[in-house]
Amino acid sequence: MAGLRSPAARCAAFGLAVAWGGTLGQAWGVAIRVQRILVPLDFSDQAQAVLDWAAHLAQEHGARVVLLHAYHLPVEFQQLEGAYLPPDFWSNVKAEAEQSLARFAASLQERAIQVETRVREGYPASVIVDEADDADMIVIGTHGHSGLKHMLLGSIAERVVQKAPCPVLTVKAPVAD
Q1: How far apart are CA 86 and CA 84, in angstroms?
Q2: What are the phi and psi torsion angles at 176 (to 5°)?
Q3: Which runs of consecutive H residues, i.e. helices, occur in 62-146?
Q4: Same-domain status, 42 and 126
Q5: pLDDT tens digits for 44-83?
Q6: N or C: which terminus of the chain has fewer CB atoms within 10 Å of its end residue's CB?
Q7: Residue 8 CB: number of other CB atoms within 10 A?
Q8: Could you tell me if 7 and 38 lie in one domain?
Q9: Which residues, 6+ apart, have CB-to-CB distance to 55 below 8 Å?
């Protein structure tokens, strides 16, 4: 960023189109183009809040929404001796995820939002970052864990924010009344 001295150059580096008027430094308009919004869902209680934010942004920008669910078997389980998974385990997991995403997609389609769904096997943060290559932004939920719980469970959203190639909006879990 050190070599980007003008505000227009700095904005262009972040994918922003800036219209300048008058003297240098007097911006009169910033246009942010959002055409694809990646929305990773874990089907938690906060999924609807994440979807509401994504729908609002999609309608505001005329953007397409890509709903994504990534699933994986935790390493701890894979290392258990004698752990048994039925032969159709992964196909059932994928089918259930596809059905759940289809329900979320239908709610967006009712609002006239273009939607596609993707289900992928793999560590969620890595899958999300991979899928973000063609996204203009990501809208993702965060559970807001801290302390020991955060250390043990980690944070998918935090890893996505650190590694994503595009802006990330994190939606905090709704607070119970």
Answers
A1: 7
A2: -70, 140
A3: 75-78, 89-109, 124-131
A4: yes
A5: 888 999 999 999 999 999 999 999 999 887 655 555 555 6
A6: C
A7: 17
A8: no
A9: 65, 108, 111, 113
